[in-house]
Amino acid sequence: MALNNTYEARLVQQETAVGAGVQILLLALLGTAIGMGPAGWLVGLAFAIATWAVLSRALHRSRPRSFGPANRVTLGRAILVGGVTALVADSFESSPPVTLLVGLTAVALILDGVDGKVARRTGTSTALGARFDMEVDAFLILVLSVYVSTQLGPWVLLIGGMRYAFVAAAKVAPWLNSPLPHSMARKTVAAMQGICLLLAGADLLPHLANLGVALLALGSLVWSFGRDVLWLWRNARVAAQALPTTEPAAPAAADLELRELAAAR
Predict the structure, then answer these.
(1) pLDDT of residue 56
(2) Which of 72, 177, 197, 238 is 20 to 30 Å from the Cα of 82, by its Cα?
(3) Angle at which helices 157-172 and 207-246 pack, to 10 degrees?
(4) Which chain regions cross the lipid bilayer (predicted)?
């Protein structure tokens, strides 16, 4: 059995290595097609190496029996996000091919609705897969917000940075780590971010329309995060207020036990 587990682990690690190789191949294709500069290459390679390292470490900790079909879809999305990241980095040196950037982003957003369905249909839903999917989504939004900020202003970075700010705040306020109830509104707002940023980044609409689309994305995100933070805060207060009513019960129970022991003697 130990040999079999080792063999499965090697297969899982091989899939992440193949993913890194495909990422480098995509960068080579992009570099050939558009003559990508040093910034795009460096950022793209850094993304490929970081994704491989973080994913390999997470897989080593969770030790899944196999990588799974849903994770393969998410890995494919991550590869596309790596290509988008390289193009955005390259855009600071030269004019980016908007059609190519929009195409890669659109495919990545479409596949966002595929990996979850694959996981449910194949019965391979895992906490690691859900976290992998969420991190890929969050990073894509961050990269798109960087790109759109060059057109509309640095305030757009709030869209991509809000989730990371929430994670940082949770380090200081652990009550933010409490689980949240299911919410379709939260999922809808999250899906809107990529679509709105893609639309604004494509620059197909007038400047004011692009500005309105980005403001809509930011406004809905602030509302969603604000609602969740308020719910978590109220839940933490209720839990804190319940503690004094339950903690004194322990001494009373202990006193009762001591009295019973004394009576038995």
Answers:
(1) 86
(2) 177
(3) 10
(4) 24-55, 211-233
**Token reading at 231:** 């719910």
Please tell me the distance from the alpha carbon of residue 15 to that of residue 122, in angstroms, as a whole number: 19
Amino acid at 12: V
Name the residue among 8, 40, 5, 10 with its Cα closest to residue 26: 40
* Nearest of 106, 86, 82 to residue 94 by alpha carbon: 86
Core vs surface per residue 98-125: b (16+ CB within 10 A) or e? eeebbebbeebbebbeebbebbeeeebe
Give the DSSP letter string of 138-191. Answer: HHHHHHHHHHHHHHH-GGGHHHHHHHHHHHHHHHH-GGGGSPPPP-HHHHHHHH
Decide if 143 contacts 85 (C-beta within 8 A): yes
What is the reported pTM?
0.85
Q: Are the beta carbons of 73 and 111 closer than 8 angstroms? A: yes
Does residue 4 have a pLDDT over 70?
no
Q: Show me where the domains of the chain are located.
A: 1-152, 158-265
pLDDT at 96 over 80: no
Dihedral, CA of residue 131, residue 137, residue 140 and residue 146, to nearest 10:
-100
DSSP 184-251: HHHHHHHHHHHHHHHHHHHT-S-HHHHHHHHHHHHHHHHHHHHHHHHHHHHHHHHHHHHHHHHTTHHH
